[in-house]
Design goal:
Largest sheet: none
Low-confidence stretches: none
Number of domains: 1
Structural class: mainly alpha
Shape: elongated
Radius of gyration: 17 Å
Order of helices and strands: HHHHHH
Oligomer: single chain
């Protein structure tokens, strides 16, 4: 990164790099959780749920790309191994060992709610010190809120469908 660009962040650059790497770990784990969940999910509205999970997986991968690029711009190094993801994650990973659609969706809703908290902290942290990162994390926060709403809507539809039987 250019010297002037790094100076914008000031003394907080190392803390920001750490926070962005933690978010990067979350994005990689979320990507896989969504992707594998879409492959194994079973139950009512399976096809709709799988399609939504795959779409979210793609978006989480896009978030990882944005974060990795920004980390490099800030002079940091993106996490280099999957082991690093587990060590740095805020939100963790929940295996879809029970492939029932509501279980998988609720696991991912929990992950989105955690991500919303992570990105809210990043928005608050960067608001006054780094306009570039602020715009990136605000955009990701918006996506995570939308993901939560999408998944909750499918769970609600499944519950309504079960009630009307």
């Amino acid at each position: 990164m250019g010297t002037k660009g790094r100076k914008i962040v000031g003394k907080q650059v190392d803390k920001l790099v750490e926070m962005l790497n933690q978010a990067l770990a979350d994005e990689w784990l979320a990507y896989y959780q969504y992707w594998v969940g879409a492959k194994v999910v079973k139950g009512p509205m399976r096809e709709a749920a799988a399609a939504e999970l795959l779409q979210h997986a793609t978006e989480e991968l896009g978030h990882a790309e944005l974060l990795a690029n920004r980390l490099i711009q800030l002079g940091g190094t993106p996490l280099l191994t999957p082991q690093d993801w587990y060590e740095m994650t805020n939100c963790g990973y929940e295996s879809p060992a029970d492939p029932y659609v509501e279980v998988v969706l609720k696991q991912n809703i929990k992950g989105e709610q955690c991500a919303i908290g992570v990105y809210q902290k990043l928005v608050d942290f960067t608001r006054e010190i780094d306009p570039v990162t602020y715009e990136i994390v605000l955009s990701i926060l918006t996506d995570e809120i939308e993901h939560e709403e999408d998944l909750e809507a499918i769970v609600e539809d499944i519950q309504l469908m079960k009630e009307r039987r």
